[in-house]
Design a protein that fits this description.
The protein has 196 residues and is an alpha/beta fold. The chain is 40% helix and 13% strand. The longest helix is centred in the C-terminal third of the chain and has 20 residues. Serine hydrolase involved in the detoxification of formaldehyde. It holds the Pfam family Esterase.
């Protein structure tokens, strides 16, 4: 299995330079470093970017991409004015998936894991005002299996004084039907902040 396929399977966006895999760097440059515009091919990577990369834009994704949106926003204060996520992995340092992925791709040094964990990053956030919006289905198997841990992120946000909204949607799982039901609320959330 190729390195790129393995990283895709891990479903965590990691900076490959940290892992000493420089030859793969052009393929794995985080979206925040790419200056592509909405849905145009990126000159550095040849990949199509799906989000607008202008300063003051919003970040919003699902599941493990939600983890990436949170991490990108917290690691790059001011790049995004708003961030939301549906069913993100919120504390990978403390869940079985995250522990396996981080051990395999970053190593055993847990202090390095914190650089890629939204719950750990928010504890030290010192950027412009930011409110996090997290939507979580209460019947999501990944949630009930303690893989997503949004409550840990909420506790860290409250401790750090970073506003957070957690919508726990009873009866909803990890499906696109769930997202389709509530995506309008996320659009409204971002629009209100971006228009301010």
């Amino acid at each position: 299995m190729s390195l790129l396929k393995k990283l895709s399977n891990a479903a965590f966006v990691l900076n490959c330079l940290l892992m000493g895999m420089v030859k793969h760097a052009p393929l794995l440059v985080p979206r925040t470093r790419c200056r592509a515009r909405c849905c145009r091919p990126c000159r550095r990577t040849g990949l199509t970017e799906q989000v607008l990369q202008a300063p003051g834009s919003a970040a919003a994704f699902l599941s493990m991409g939600g983890h990436g949106a949170l991490v990108s926003t917290l690691r790059n204060p001011g790049l995004y004015k708003s961030v939301s996520a549906f069913a993100p992995i919120c504390n990978p340092c403390a869940c079985p998936w995250g522990e396996k992925a981080f051990t395999g791709y970053i190593g055993d040094d847990k202090s390095k894991w914190a650089e890629w964990d939204a719950t750990e990053l928010v504890k030290h956030y010192d950027g412009p005002p930011l409110t996090l919006l997290i939507d979580q289905g209460g019947a999501d198997k990944f949630y009930t299996d303690k893989q997503l841990l949004p409550e840990n992120l909420v506790a860290a946000c409250r401790s750090a004084g970073v506003p957070v909204i957690l919508n726990l949607r009873e009866g909803y799982d990890h499906s696109y039907y769930y997202i389709a039901t509530y995506i309008g609320e996320h659009f409204d959330f971002h629009a209100k902040i971006l228009k301010a």
